[in-house]
C-alpha cells in the first residue's frame, strides 16, 4: 500500500492511495487538470474517488471525475450540500463498507461543520495493510486496530494561534471557526496515543494551517512522540 499526498491545504486537498493493482483518489479539491499536472501529466486508472465532505477544497473536481466515468463516493449529506448536482455519486454512510478492487473501504463519522462528513478505514485485501484517513475534523473517537498508516488532520497549534496579533472581528471569527472545525496538534497527539501503532510504519499530517501551524515544530513533536515511525508533513 502506497499513500501519495498530492495537495494538502485550504487551497485544495488530494491524495492517491494504491495497492499496486487498485488506485483510489482520496479527496478531489483541485481540478482534474491540476491532478494530472501533479501526477506527471496523466491520471492513473482510478477505481474510485472518496470525498469526505462538500467543501470545495475537498470536492471541487467531483463533477469532472463523474464526467470521466470515475465513481465518486460520498455521504448523502455531502451529495445534498454539494454545489454541483451529485445524482450520479455513489452514496455511503458511516458504518458501511464497500469493496473497490483490492481495497476494502469502511466509512466512519468525523466532526466538522458540514452535513455528514466521513473518514475512511481502508484495508488492502491482499496484504492486510490498513490506512486510517481523517481530515477536517475537530476531534476523533474512532479506534481501529492494526494500523500500518495513519493520515490525520493536524491543522493548528493553540500556542501559535494565541500569540497571533490579529484582534479585529475577522481575525476573531477565523480563530473561532478554526477551533470549532479543525484538529489542534495536541488533540492529534492524544488521539494517536489511543491507537495500537505497534505495526504502524507511517503517519501523515494533513491540512496544516498557513497562519497557525509550524511544520518543523510539528515534525519534531511527532518524531519524539512516536519514535521509529516515519512522520510526513503533507505538502501543499
Structural account:
With 236 residues, the chain is of the alpha/beta class. The chain contains eight helices and 13 strands. It has a seven-stranded mixed beta sheet with strand order 7-8-9-10-11-12-13, with helices on one face. A six-stranded mixed beta sheet has the order 1-2-3-4-5-6. The protein is globular. The model has no long low-confidence stretch (mean pLDDT 96).
Feature tags:
single chain; 236 residues; alpha/beta; 7-stranded mixed β-sheet; 6-stranded mixed β-sheet; 8 helices; 26% helix
Mean pLDDT: 96
Overall number of strands: 13
What is the terminal-to-terminal distance?
A: 22 Å
Strand content: 25-35%
Approximate shape: globular
Order of strands side by side in the largest beta sheet? 7-8-9-10-11-12-13
Flag low-confidence runs: none
Structural category is alpha/beta
Tally of individual helices: 8
Q: Indicate the percent of residues in helices.
A: 25-40%
The whole-angstrom Rg is 17 Å
